[in-house]
Specification:
With 293 residues, the protein is of the alpha/beta class. The chain is built from seven helices and ten strands. The radius of gyration is 18 Å and the shape is globular. The two termini are 31 Å apart.
């Protein structure tokens, strides 16, 4: 599926923008310039039309600073979409740092790399907390992996340890986000076609990216849910479950072509998580080389 000519054209345009900006961002990061935080947003916004992506936002991004954003994870494409909307960095597993090309891009965006082993939990919490205390926004994918885009996996409560971080005497704000690749050329994307955009399981990156580059116009729905703090909950586990339900509701609504117009107030218990469809048979979700922490 897709046009090879369109894919080649988009790839050439993408590289013509990306390669010149990489040394500029490297210098900005090296000298701790404000440009190091604003240039990635500019860059990702330029990438959206190259990919044929149109982003539809719902809800409001909080004006709090800094913020720990927590989102479902479908693909490496999430980085481009969210990076165009949020001035900040991402939390990723340490293996991403060594990836050719994309590992360099991740480092240039000042990604916080974490080791996904229990013995390193304290160190990774401190790394995330340190960036938040510096005033930087962070985007975290608490599912711990990517999946087929039709469902939202449970959130790992250990990754919410950074929500206990205090900045200027108060707990850092946590804002849940739902992202869904909803329409292709104006036509709703169903369960069967949604994995066109999802990168999970044992999928190879290069052929998946080539296929995406050859697709038509894609509508991506991003829903910003009300922000919360750890003080709104009895425990970190409760916060993780609440955020997961909010995100799952947003994903289900976008996948069904509905718009969420009313959400429970922060700290209240939202409706039950909608039934989650089974994983696509292509690969078992949760085993792939996702960028998630």
């Amino acid at each position: 599926m897709g046009s090879p000519l369109l894919a080649l054209t988009r790839l050439v345009i993408y590289l013509s923008i990306t390669l010149p900006l990489m040394p500029v961002q490297a210098l900005a990061v090296a000298f701790n310039m404000r440009l190091a935080r604003s240039l990635p947003v500019f860059y990702h916004r330029r990438c959206l039309p190259i990919l044929g992506f149109q982003v539809q936002t719902e809800g409001e991004r909080t004006t709090d600073q800094p913020v720990l954003y927590v989102c479902n994870h479908t693909s490496y494409l999430d980085i481009i979409v969210l990076g165009s909307l949020i001035p900040g960095s991402f939390v990723a597993k340490s293996e991403v740092k060594s990836w050719p090309f994309f590992g360099w891009l991740a480092q240039l965006q000042r990604t916080v790399f974490v080791i996904r082993r229990g013995s390193k939990a304290g160190k990774q919490r401190d790394s995330i907390a340190e960036r938040l205390q510096e005033g930087g926004n962070l985007v975290l994918f608490p599912e711990g992996t990517s999946n087929d885009g039709n469902r939202t996996l449970p959130f790992k409560s250990a990754l919410f340890a950074a929500a206990d971080t205090q900045v200027n005497g108060k707990k850092v704000s946590v804002q849940p986000i739902s992202i869904s690749y909803a329409r292709l050329n104006g036509i709703p994307v169903g369960r069967t076609l949604r994995p066109l955009f999802a990168w999970y399981g044992d999928m190879d990156l290069a052929p998946h990216l080539w296929r995406v580059l050859g697709l038509g116009a894609v509508t991506v729905v991003v829903h910003f849910h009300p922000p919360v703090t750890l003080d709104d909950f009895a425990s970190r586990k409760d916060m993780a479950e609440y955020c997961q339900r909010q995100v799952a509701l947003g994903v289900a609504a976008a996948n069904a072509g509905r718009t969420m117009t009313a959400l429970p107030a922060p700290g209240a218990t939202p409706p039950e998580t909608p039934p989650q469809p089974p994983a696509e048979p292509h690969a078992e979700a949760g085993t792939g080389s996702s960028k998630a922490a």
